[in-house]
Each structure stands twice: as structure tokens, then as C-alpha cells.
């Protein structure tokens, strides 16, 4: 069964502000979340109940709701800025 991928407005703005060469790589990872909401290599964050997905020097913070089958993209950005 497929999951819906929903962006928080600030995460969508963060994605659009990324360098053009990284956007296709991240878009591919985000599209795959609809079939595999917790891909290999994703990690649960210690400070909150969300997950982190790494793509080069960039991170995607997401929350997975298994009952509603929704993956919420909460933040997208460079690793040095994403956890602040």
C-alpha cells in the first residue's frame, strides 16, 4: 500500500532554495517515500519522534503516520542548518 507524501510549506520552500544540482537527487528520494516510508539508512531522531534521511550533505526530516499512511516532510536543508 502506498503512502501519501505531504510537504509542510516551510519544507517546500527549503527544497526550492536548494542548489539545482541536488534537487533531482532529493526529489528521487522523496518520491520513493510513497512506497518505502522508512528507507534503508534512515534514522530516528533522539530529540523528537521524527526520522532523518541523508542525501549527500543534505537532510530530510519527516514524520511517518502508519495509521493514516502519510509521510509528512517537515524540513529539508543542509546538514549544518537542519537541526537548529
Word description of this protein:
The structure is a single chain. The protein has helices spanning 9-16, 23-32, 79-82, and strands at 4-7, 43-44, 51-55, 58-65, 70-78. By secondary structure, the protein is α+β, with helices and mostly antiparallel strands. β4 and β5 (70-78) form a beta hairpin. The radius of gyration is 12 Å and the shape is globular. The mean pLDDT is 93.
SS elements, strand count: 5
Helical residue percent?
25-40%
Please state the structural category. alpha+beta
Rg estimate, integer Å: 12 Å
* Tally of structural domains: 1
Following the backbone from N to C, one meets helices and strands in this order, namely EHHEEEEH
Head-to-tail CA distance between termini: 34 Å
